[in-house]
Design goal:
Elements lengths: L3 E6 L7 H18 L12 E6 L2 E6 L6 E3 L7 E5 L9 H15 L3 E5 L13
Antiparallel strand pairs: 1-5, 1-6, 2-3, 3-4
């Protein structure tokens, strides 16, 4: 069992020039923020860029390994299980990426947490 948290992108980003530009800035900030690792804990980067035949994606090496696709139109959700000893470490990264997404992608970014489910939109954080 357990519970998840994350954020959704709604409505989905259309692959327009403006959306592609905003999404590129979002990806750059995510990589700049998380690519360096944690010197205090002597960790390698928490993210890795994974090439595929249809493009690439950014994979976070925490929790259930949430991903961010390189194509804006494919980015619909960023989430992970955040309960339990192996997945709890993902929650600060989910929240951090949410803040960056909110900055670049605006009101279409909606945070949610299964512990706060109320059957309405009160669980969304602005």
């Amino acid at each position: 069992m357990g519970f998840d948290c994350g954020f959704d992108i709604y409505p989905a980003l259309e692959p327009t020039s403006l959306n592609k530009e905003k999404y590129e800035l979002f990806l750059r900030e995510v990589l700049r923020t998380y690519e360096g690792g944690d010197e205090a804990e002597r960790c390698n980067s928490i993210v890795r860029v994974v090439p595929t035949s249809s493009g690439a994606y950014v994979e976070f090496m925490v929790g259930e390994h949430p991903i961010i696709p390189y194509s804006c139109e494919h980015f619909l959700r960023f989430s992970s299980k955040v309960s339990g000893s192996l997945t709890a470490a993902a929650e600060p990264y989910i929240k951090g990426v949410y803040k960056i997404a909110k900055k670049w992608l605006g009101d279409r970014v909606q945070f949610w947490h299964e512990l706060n489910e109320t059957d309405d939109h009160r669980q969304w954080v602005s």
